[in-house]
Structure formats: C-alpha cells, structure tokens
Specification:
single chain, about 450 residues, alpha/beta
C-alpha cells in the first residue's frame, strides 16, 4: 500500500476506509476485521468511525456499479495504481450515495491525497473525472445508463445490482428471473442489526416489556428483535450496558429464524455443535435447552470467543474441543443431535458481508461442496439411533443446499428428512439461510 504518513492521508474517515478496502480487496482480509484495525488507527472520534464504516460497506455493496462508471469515464482505470483506483471509487460512492457530503469536500480530499501520494501528474485526470461525474450524476442512478450497449440481462444486473455475473446467472437458473431479481435488489440493502435477548437474564422480561410493540422493530420468536442499525440507539438508550451485562447478544434475525425452525427446545441430547464458531447458535441452545451440549470448531480463536460469550451471558459451562468436522469427531459418545452449520459460499449474507461477492469464485464452491459432503458423512456415522442432524448454510445456491441433502438421502437409506427451511421464502429479513432437519432411522 502507498505511504501512510500523516501528510499524505485524507481525513480520518477516508483514510480508514481506503486502508480497510485495500486490505480487503488486495489481501483478502474479511471486511469487519479489516475495518476494526483501521478504525483503531485513524478514527478516535465516533462520527469518523460511523462515516468510515458507511464508506467501507457502501463501497463494497456498490463496487460493481462503481467499476462500470470508472470504465465509462476513465481510459483504462485498471492500469492505475490499485489504491488510486479505490480512491476514485470511494469518491464516486460519496457523490452517488451520500447526499450530505458536498462535492467540493470529496474533490478536496481526493486531490490532496493524489498530490501527496503520487505527485501532481494525475491531478488533471482526477479533476476531469470529478467534473464528468457531476455532469452525469442524475443519469448514474437510472437503469438506462447501465444498458447503454444493449447488453444482456445478466450483464445489466451485474452492473446495476453490483454482482459478479456468475452469481447473477446462478440465481436466475436456480430461482427464476423474478425471484432472482428480488434477491439481487435485496443484497444491496444494509443488513438489519439482529439482537437476541437472553431469557435467562434477570432483566429479560422487563426489557421485553419496555420495548413494547414498536413499529420500527422486527421480531423473531419471543426473544429475537431487529431494526435498522441507525435506529438501535433510539430503541435502546443503554445498548452497550445491556450487552456488557449479558442481557443482549448480537445475532442475525435469519440465523435466529433457522434455530426456531429446528425446534431446538425439543432436540434430544447430547447435542453437538460441530462448527460452533464464536458461539451464536451454541449460546442460543444454552439459553433454551437443559440438554447436554458439546461444541467444537477448527479455529481455537473462535472457541476462545465462544467461551467468552458463555461467560458474558452467565450460561453453564460445556465441553469444548478443537476439531475438524470432516474428520472423526473427538468424543466417543453418540450424540442425539448434531448441529452442522457448514462452511459455505456465503451468498445469502451479502448484505452483511458484501466483500464475499468480490472474493468467491465457482472454484471455491466446488471445493466447498466436497468439504460439506465429508462433514455430512461424518455426522451421519456419528449419530446415535433415532438421532437428528440439523444441516445449515447461509448461502443461496442449491448445489450447497438442496442437492447436498437430496444426494445424502439417496445414498443413506437409513435417513429421513423431517423438514427443510429456505430463507429465500423470507426476504424481509435481508439475509438468506437454508436448513434441513434429518433423522436417523
């Protein structure tokens, strides 16, 4: 990355966003860890943090549209230094989507950054680009600009809805043009802030009553609530305290919806969460079930986070193991239920993880399918008689969802399917999980 001394840096929010985007797009770092690192380095002020977050996530959501604009108004932008290309794109995002940022402010930080980082030779190019952008600003929000060369539906959607063309093609084949169109529109929206009230906390009932039936809230079950992120502080004036005291947890509404579908209150133990991660689903189970529970994951840092979550929420301790779900599982006893939240392409959570669509490839999906099938085979062989297997993904791809379960049922006659859940039937949640509940005969 270019020099990061204070004389060459734009204002704090832009510096943080540029550095985060560079590490995301050039080095493959996940969006939130990349952003957290740069917020700590550049943004002590809460307002700068908020703007940097909006810039980073917004740019990633709309990168496909912005790239098309860059190629329309610049000659060979791919030959520019990568960080400079990101800077042009970030300035474009500001002017297209942030009404409160005046044009002169965007132009000022962009020109200053270019002059200090690369000298004055590119200033004329940047000035000309910003002027052209302003001249076409109204048309850049209209569909016709992205259809200008009579392109195909796939190409138009790829440009306008900011999606790689292979994802557009996959969704049209899998769900039909009408449903795929809605999915493409929805993934551009920011994800809801999903919250889960801890029913075992002594203030849980009072918190629930205090919220009431507020129209800005979406509810899942009794204890799940969600809202636009900018509304959370209006609903909970003491949100940070509620979280630190173990009364609230952050968990997407779609993930909570899946857990309700699985009827976790009625699952027979011991329950084994074999891809536990940081413990969202594990803690959901602990808050609602007294059945014996085990958890494992391949990453020890995630397991450390899981233990911290259990402690923060005041839940009972459980056995935790570092283990691969595609190898022999680490406990000898046969579980009564296995929860397999499998690694997947993540195409159902693009509103929360917009970086995924610029990293995933069709090759990734092929390798993930092989891994998922290994995990399913190990899970089935590990189940006790009459045991249940809950298979979950957060992707919109039948090859990782329906096809995996259909193949498993054909090859394992000792299994039966008790039900399937498709997040594509619940588009109001803006995230799309898929699940199947199987039983070993």
């Amino acid at each position: 990355m270019a020099r990061r001394n204070t004389t060459s840096s734009p204002p704090p929010s832009r510096s943080a966003a540029l550095a985060a985007l560079y590490s995301i797009l050039r080095h493959g770092v996940a969006v939130q860890p990349a952003l957290d690192k740069q917020l700590g380095a550049f943004c002590p002020d809460v307002r700068d943090k908020a703007l940097a977050t909006e810039l980073t996530y917004g740019y990633l959501r709309h990168k496909g549209r912005i790239d098309f604009i860059l190629h329309s108004f610049l000659a060979k932008p791919q030959k520019l230094p990568p960080l400079l290309c990101i800077a042009f794109g970030l300035a474009s995002y500001e002017q297209l989507f942030l009404d409160r940022v005046p044009e002169f402010a965007t132009r000022s930080w962009l020109l200053h950054f270019i002059r200090k980082s690369w000298g004055s030779g590119l200033i004329r190019l940047a000035n000309a680009y910003m002027t052209t952008l302003q001249d076409h600003l109204v048309h850049l929000h209209e569909e016709d600009f992205y259809r200008q060369d009579a392109c195909s539906v796939v190409t138009f959607w790829s440009r306008f809805y900011s999606l790689p063309s292979w994802i557009v093609s996959l969704w049209i084949r899998a769900y039909g043009e009408k449903r795929a169109h809605y999915l493409a529109q929805t993934q551009l929206l920011p994800a809801f802030l999903g919250l889960r009230i801890n029913p075992m906390h002594y203030e849980a009932d009072a918190l629930l009553q205090g919220i009431g039936n507020r129209p800005e809230l979406t509810t899942i079950g009794k204890w799940g609530i969600g809202c636009e992120r900018n509304q959370a502080r209006h609903v909970f004036s003491n949100l940070d305290n509620l979280y630190s005291q173990g009364c609230l947890s952050k968990q997407s509404l779609a993930a909570q919806q899946v857990m309700h579908f699985l009827q976790v209150d009625h699952l027979r133990g011991p329950i084994w969460d074999v891809c536990a991660g940081h413990g969202g689903k594990t803690c959901f189970l602990l808050e609602r079930s007294s059945e014996p529970l085990r958890a494992s994951d391949v990453h020890w840092l995630r397991l450390r986070g899981l233990r911290q979550e259990i402690q923060r929420l005041g839940l009972r301790n459980i056995p935790v193991a570092l283990a691969r779900a595609d190898h022999t599982l680490p406990w000898n006893e046969k579980p009564g239920c296995i929860l397999l939240d499998a690694p997947c392409s993540g195409l159902g959570v693009l509103s929360r993880r917009p970086d995924i669509k610029w990293k995933r490839t069709l090759f990734d999906i092929s390798s993930l399918q092989v891994l998922q099938r290994k995990m399913l085979d190990i899970a089935v062989s590990s189940l006790s008689p009459s045991g249940r297997l809950a298979y979950i993904t957060c992707t919109l791809n039948p090859a990782e969802n329906e096809d995996q379960i259909d193949t498993l049922l054909r090859e394992q006659p000792g299994l039966r399917c008790l039900g399937r859940y498709s997040g594509a039937d619940h588009p109001e949640l803006r995230e799309f999980f898929w699940a199947a509940l199987l039983e070993k005969k």
